[in-house]
Structure formats: structure tokens, C-alpha cells
Amino acid sequence: MKSDTRDGLFSEYTENRVKAEFLMQQVYSRHIDMNSKLACELERLLERISGQDRKISMM
Fold first, then answer.
1. Is there a contact between 39 and 33 (Cβ–Cβ < 8 Å)?
2. Of 22, 44, 53, 57, which has the fewest Cβ atoms less than 10 A away?
């Protein structure tokens, strides 16, 4: 059970990192206003990744 939870966390973390990388490329390559919907989505995703980083480091 604990292994499933950890595997799920790592899977979601990896997926979020890939999404964040894509969004960062979009924001920077298209010079998108940092108040745009895309930039706000990126900020929320980075906050989620930060929380996942903390959980992973505590495992």
C-alpha cells in the first residue's frame, strides 16, 4: 500500500514536472504576460511541485 502511494506520488510529480517544463517554454518563448492564464497555471503547478518535493524528501 505504501509503495502504491509512493509510486503514485512519483508518477504525478514526474507528470507535473513535464507539464511545468512545457508551460515555461511557452511562457518564455512567446513572451507571455506573467498575469496571463497560462502563467497563472504555471505558478500553481510550480507550487504543487514544490509541495511534492517536500513530501518526497521526507520519504
1. yes
2. 57
Q: What is the pLDDT of residues 18-43, one digit of tens each?
A: 999 888 887 777 776 766 788 788 88
Residue 32 φ/ψ region, left for φ over 0, alpha for ψ in the -120 to 50 degree band, beta for the rest: beta
Query: Does residue 58 carry a pLDDT above 80?
Result: yes
User: Residue 31: left (phi > 0), alpha (psi -120 to 50), or beta?
Assistant: left
Question: Three cell numbers at 45?
Answer: 503547478
Buried b / exposed e over 4-32, threshold 16 CB at 10 Å, is eeeeeeeeebeeeeeebeebeeebeeeee
Do 10 and 25 touch, CB atoms closer than 8 A? no
